[in-house]
Specification:
Number of domains: 4
Number of strands: 21
Strand content: 15-25%
Order of helices and strands: HEEHHHEEHEEEHEHHEEEEEEEEEEEEHE
Length: about 550
């Protein structure tokens, strides 16, 4: 077989072909060799192929034929490796109703020519040449020959099915035990003592069983067809949906690209405007400095020439004019630094509003922080507690007093004890990325501290400043209540620092009684602010110790 052409079974099984099962009448050509059937065999998948084509199948395809899990381990005939029942032998081919489609059947004898006649005695399909030879032989001279065209309307022109074990005998019996057709020789040999019957007698029972099985199979066919139709419909719907979403993506992307391009153009125009503005300021400053320099040089040259070449009288005569001119020039104020800088930055993550309905990012800023305009804010600017974190906020602004709106500035903060400048407190500066900075620190000891806040190595407005760090606040030992009567559940021994008492032997305060403050207060020290430091001390009346037992 190694030299023969191989036919991979998967390609044959997975795709509908011209091979036929018993229910597929009208197919006369092998799906593998595409020629007329020669010794056709029925596969377990109910396809029909030539015996020679079956023997040329790839070994691995035996798995599909046998339904097992192992391949053929050695070369040889696949057909021989199969069990006889897995492949029904010599099945007759169902042909079309001879409605002009009868041509194409091969002669049963020579297998080379097309059939013209059929021997009704031998049940053989013969070509013209073999038909003449059939008539010349003595044994077949009187056999009835019929033209193929006269068989129009017949459903089959098959040959008798012979026993594979006894080729001379026709399969006419059925072994009930082995569930397979047998011949007369079989029932006296291999199938001896097996129950058997004529095929014509058992066909109804087995046919009815097949019909019941077919009846059960038909709903599955319909369900599978419906499932495939749904899959096909879903696939079409999926394709349409994908195309629709792809169109939305392209539309969104195109719009977003246009918005980004327009935003880019705006940023570049803004950048160009900044450049022109800064260059104009530089040119104006340059012109003013050049004019002042020219006036200075003229005055210096005239004065030097007067002092070196002029007579005493000339010097004295022009002295007033020269002194006045030089004095005036010396009083002119000018900046030795450029009036503008090159501080231009781009913040790609900063929100820049919406463009054509799309949110865009990226902003250009030419602002420069002015330390003199920066502001310090917060409740902890001038007070703090030992071992408790204090914080304040630095708001950076430009020369016009507007918020910078961005971070990234060089901020330096120092918190130093006034009497121990060599032990600074660790500080943390958090950049909020919006022009504000949160400064926090935790003093370890009480005392006076000096705080420096610098931007670009310059003190901001209000820096340096002092902070008084007090001892850690004392917590309250009592309860914050409306009165001792309510918070204690009516206990007579419950006392309160407000000093109010109730008649009837109550030692604490009650609503509306003399001395009641008229608002919520702490039972331990009498303070009215809930978030406050307790001022009760051990030197107070011993009766105050009872206040700590009051609970809600």
């Amino acid at each position: 077989m190694s030299g023969n052409k191989k036919h991979p079974l998967p390609g044959f099984v997975s795709k509908p072909s011209s091979g036929t099962a018993l229910g597929n009448s009208g197919k006369t050509h092998c799906p593998l060799c595409m020629g007329l059937f020669k010794a056709p065999r029925l596969l377990p998948c109910l396809h029909t192929v030539c015996t020679t084509c079956l023997e040329q199948l790839e070994p691995f395809s035996v798995v599909d034929l046998r339904g097992g899990d192992s391949d053929t381990s050695s070369e040889g005939s696949v057909f021989q490796d199969l069990k006889p029942r897995s492949l029904q032998p010599q099945i007759g081919i169902l042909c079309p109703s001879l409605r002009g489609e009868g041509q194409g059947l091969a002669c049963d004898l020579c297998s080379d020519r097309e059939v013209e006649k059929r021997c009704q005695t031998c049940k053989a399909n013969l070509c013209h040449f073999c038909c003449q030879a059939h008539r010349r032989q003595k044994k077949t001279t009187y056999h009835t020959m019929v033209d193929l065209k006269d068989l129009k309307g017949y459903s089959r022109i098959g040959k008798p099915i012979l026993c594979p074990a006894h080729p001379a005998e026709e399969l006419k019996l059925f072994c009930e035990l082995c569930d397979q057709p047998v011949c007369r020789d079989c029932v006296v040999g291999e199938h001896r003592e097996h129950p058997y019957n004529f095929t014509s007698n058992v066909i109804h029972k087995h046919g009815d069983a097949m019909r019941e099985l077919l009846k059960d199979t038909q709903p599955h066919v319909e369900a599978l067809e419906e499932a495939l139709a749904q899959i096909k419909g879903m696939n079409s719907s999926l394709q349409e949906r994908v195309e629709s979403v792809a169109a939305d993506v392209r539309k969104f992307s195109e719009g977003y690209i246009r918005a980004i391009e327009e935003h880019c153009d705006k940023l570049l125009k803004q950048l160009e405007d900044i450049r022109v503005q800064k260059e104009n300021s530089l040119q104006l400053q340059k012109a003013q400095l050049e004019q002042l320099l020219a006036d200075m040089r003229t005055g210096v040259e005239f004065t030097e020439h007067l002092l070196t070449s002029g007579s005493d009288l000339e010097i004295l005569i022009t002295k007033g004019v020269v002194v006045e001119r030089l004095t005036k020039l010396n009083k002119v104020e000018y900046s030795a630094r450029p009036s503008v800088n090159d501080k231009i930055c781009f913040s790609p993550q900063e929100k820049a509003g919406r463009c054509h309905g799309y949110e865009v990012f990226g902003a250009i800023s030419a602002k420069e922080v002015d330390p003199a305009k920066c502001v310090l804010q917060g409740e902890d600017l001038h007070r703090a507690r030992e071992k408790q974190t204090a914080s304040f906020t630095l708001l950076c602004k430009d020369a016009a007093g507007e918020s910078m709106g961005r971070g990234g500035d060089n901020i330096r903060v120092a918190v130093v004890p006034k009497d121990r400048k060599d032990c600074p407190v660790r500080t943390v500066v958090q950049d909020n990325k919006d022009g504000t900075y949160c400064v926090s620190y935790t003093p370890k000891e009480p005392g006076v501290y000096t705080v420096w806040v610098c931007v670009k190595e310059q003190h901001v407005q209000g820096s340096p400043f002092t902070v008084t760090v007090r001892k850690k606040s004392r917590p309250h030992h009592g309860v914050f209540h409306c009165c001792a009567f309510c918070s204690s559940g009516g206990q007579k021994t419950a006392r309160c620092a407000c000093g109010s008492t109730m008649p009837g032997g109550y030692l604490g305060c009650g609503h509306g009684h003399k001395g009641h403050p008229g608002r919520p207060h702490w039972s331990c020290c009498g303070k009215f602010t809930e978030k406050s430091e307790c001022t009760w001390t051990s030197g107070q009346s011993t009766s105050r110790s009872l206040l700590r037992t009051v609970a809600l």
